[in-house]
Amino acid sequence: MEKYFAPCLLLYVIAGCFADDLTYLNGFYSKTPQRLSKYSWFGNVRLHHFRVPEDAVLARWLLTVSRGSGLNCGNQNITVHFRVGAPPVINPIETTFPNSTSVSLAHNLTLTIPSGQSGNVTLFNVTHPKPGDWFLAAHLPKDEGKIEQQGLPSCSYLFQAQMFLRRAADLPILQLNIPLYQTLTTTPALFKVFVPEFSSRLDVFILNCSVKLGNDCGLSITVGSSTLRQGSEVKQNCSGSESCSTSVLIPPWNSWLLVTVETSQPNTTIPFSISANVTVGCKPLSVSSDFNTSAFIRTIIAPQSNSSGGLSNTSVSIRDQPGLRANSSEPVCMRSPSVVRDEQDVLSLRFIVSSSNLTVTSDLPTVLTLEHSPGDSGGTFVVQLHLNTSSLVGGFAHVKACLTPSAPVLHVNRSQTCATGLMQGYSLSVSSNESQALLRIPFPDAAVWYLSLQTVCNDSVDCRNASAIVSASVSVSACIDDCGPYGECRLLRTHSYLYGACVCKAGWQGWGCTDGATAQSYSRQMTAALLLTLSNFFFIPPIVVALYRGYHVEAAIYFFTMFFSTFYHACDQPGVTVMCIMDYDTLQFCDFLGSVVSVWVTIVCMARLQDPVKYLLFMAGTLVISMAMQLDRRGLWNLLGPVLFALVIMVTSWVYRGVKRHQCYPPLWRRWVLFLLPGIVSALIGVCVYVFAQTDGNYYYTHSIWHVMVATSVVFLLPPREKHVPPWGWTNKICSYRRCKNEKVELYTVT
Question: Where does it localize (predicted)?
Answer without folding.
Answer: Cell membrane
